[in-house]
Task: inverse folding
């Protein structure tokens, strides 16, 4: 698998930040038992990881813009390119010692995502994709699952929690989806949910109220693995609306229909 120079830069940044997160994850498992808990420590862990990523990316492409969850946006002098970064997606899992979290780095060119890297250091799983070059998990080429009907499908989602999202709307969506599928999962990392769709682990996935850094890299992974990704209404405004719905051609279509059914009388 040949990677472009740009994708290599992204991979190096993700691996370096992943190393730092791995060390801190070990520490979280110790802090877990203390009364104060690892909360403050975790918010430092993601800031530290973002600094590592920003330094790596800006060193290599100093003119590109940078949108990261943990820092002020940098408007690059190169108006065409922007990095979109979540240094730690799956913070709640990380905080609770659950090894489902990762680094997410995307590259946008003229408002289109052209490359994405997601790295879960706890499982040493590196997902990469470039436009036209396919999607990979480590060295293995990825393809979305081929199941065609919802009754065979396992679907990922995001559950809005304390202070977040529209709980009533989600419950209505879930009510319809769970009645049609083989299983529903909530893994707690939007980036990895999309990577799992690309890898054929999940047949589909939907979530609302997300930010660009949660999903930018995952979008290109799914597309390069042959899948469909849209906003919740089937359109292309994924980053703008913070809504996402993904799967292969058949599951995407079916999930779109089922998740929008009105409340039965
Ligand atoms: C969160 C995760 C989670 C999703 C949340 C996100 P964070 O990102 O992606 O799966 O349900 O809405 O905010 O806070 O762990 O970076
Ligand atoms: Ca996130
Ligand atoms: Ca985050």
Result:
């Amino acid at each position: 698998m040949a990677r472009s120079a740009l994708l290599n830069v992204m991979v190096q940044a993700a691996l370096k930040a992943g190393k730092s997160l791995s060390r801190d994850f070990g520490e979280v498992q110790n802090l877990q038992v203390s009364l104060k808990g690892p909360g403050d420590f975790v918010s430092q862990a993601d800031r530290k990881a973002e600094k590592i990523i920003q330094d790596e990316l800006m060193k290599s492409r100093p003119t590109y813009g940078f949108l990261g969850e943990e820092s002020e946006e940098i408007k690059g002098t190169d108006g065409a390119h922007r990095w979109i970064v979540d240094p730690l997606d799956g913070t709640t899992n990380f905080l609770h010692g659950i090894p489902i979290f990762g680094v997410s780095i995307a590259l946008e060119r003229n408002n289109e995502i052209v490359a994405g890297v997601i790295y879960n250091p706890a499982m040493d799983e590196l997902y990469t994709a470039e436009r036209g070059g396919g999607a990979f998990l480590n060295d293995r080429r990825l393809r979305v699952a081929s199941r065609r009907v919802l009754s065979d499908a396992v679907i990922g989602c995001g559950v809005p929690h304390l202070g977040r999202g529209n709980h009533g709307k989600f419950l209505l969506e879930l009510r319809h989806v769970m009645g049609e599928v083989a299983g529903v999962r909530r893994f707690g990392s939007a980036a990895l949910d999309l990577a799992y769709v690309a890898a054929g682990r999940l047949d589909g996935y939907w979530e609302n109220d997300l930010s660009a850094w949660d999903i930018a890299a995952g979008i290109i992974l799914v597309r390069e693995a042959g899948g469909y990704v849209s906003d919740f209404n089937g359109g292309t405004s994924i980053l703008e609306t913070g809504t996402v719905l993904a799967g292969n051609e058949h599951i995407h279509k079916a999930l779109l229909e089922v998740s929008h059914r009105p409340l039965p009388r």
Summary: Helices lie at 5-31, 39-60, 91-95, 167-178, 190-198, 212-224, 238-241, 249-259. The chain has a mean pLDDT of 95. Residues 86, 89, 214 surround calcium ion (ligand 2) (CB under 6 Å). The CA atoms of residues 99 and 235 lie 33 Å apart.
